[in-house]
Amino acid sequence: MALLQRVQDMTYVDLNWLMNINFWGVVHGTHAFLPGMLARDSGVIVNLSSLYGILAWPANSAYSAAKFAVRGYTEAMRHDLHKTGVRAVSVHPGGIQTSIVRNARFTSDDLGRIDRRKLERDFDKIALTSADRAATIILDGVERGRDRILVGKDAKILTLLTRLVPEKYFSVIRALQRFAR
Questions:
Q1: What digits encode the pLDDT tens for the residues 10-44?
Q2: What is the pLDDT of residue 179?
Q3: ∠ at Cα 124 (173, 1), nearest 5°?
Q4: How far is CA 19 from CA 1, 11, 68, 166, in A?
Q5: Which of 1-10, 21-30, 107-116, 158-167 has the least mean pLDDT?
Q6: CB-side exposure of 31: number of CA atoms within 13 Å?
Q7: CA distance 42 to 112
Q8: Which of 79, 2, 92 is nearest to 46 (CA)?
Q9: In angstroms, rounded to a whole number, what is the distance separating the alpha carbons of residues 176 and 162?
Q10: CATH number of 3-179
Q11: With a threshold of 0.70, does the pTM exceed it?
Q12: What distance in Å separates the CA atoms of residue 26 and residue 13, rounded to the nearest whole number?
């Protein structure tokens, strides 16, 4: 789920709603399946983070916080599971053709606009990867033994940007905001 609000407009109710789904859902799912995997000494925990678990985007502080938390949780788990037969994988999709924006709680978009339909149309233009293609990429990454799976060209390019200019990528994102509309 997504929550599109600036920090100064966010309520604790909305923040808790998002964290309960996007972070605690991952934790509860992990704890439900991990004991059986450890007993068999086999399996893969695949946790869905996001591109926004690698970089932050305006009006997505709660979503980014949850997705950064999923990434940290999964990467720490990877250490904890070392020398077991169980792996932990974090998945970081970019724009995937789903209904995430249509189902989001929304106050304003990253440019401060309150037109939800405009945001939905904009997302549809930039969500370049189909859900089927994303699933194929994830399954392939798991089968190849990847620990972190980036889904979509946008995820790969923007992740590279954060590595090249970790303190300066904000200015590039501001330019991309206007370009993507």
A1: 999 999 999 999 999 999 999 999 999 999 999 99
A2: 65
A3: 80
A4: 9, 12, 11, 25
A5: 107-116
A6: 7
A7: 47
A8: 92
A9: 14
A10: 3.40.50.720
A11: yes
A12: 19
Spans of all domains in the chain: 3-179
The identity of residue 159, as a single letter, is T
Residues in the chain: 181
Q: How many angstroms separate the Cα of 163 from the Cα of each of 21, 54, 55?
A: 29, 10, 10
Residue of 52, 63, 73, 169 marked catalytic: 63
Q: What single string gives the DSSP state of each residue in the chain?
A: --EEB-GGG--HHHHHHHHHHHTHHHHHHHHHHHHHHHHHT-EEEEEE--GGGTS--TTBHHHHHHHHHHHHHHHHHHHHTTTSSEEEEEEEE-SEESSTTTTSEES--TTS---HHHHHHHHHHH--EEHHHHHHHHHHHHHTT-SEEEESHHHHHHHHHHHH-TTTHHHHHHHHHHHT-
For residues 177 and 155, the model is more confident at 155
Please, which residues bridge with residue 151 across strands? 93
Assess whether 63 carries a catalytic annotation: yes
Tokens in use for 32?
A: 């439900």
- Rounded Cα distance, 158 and 94, in Å: 9
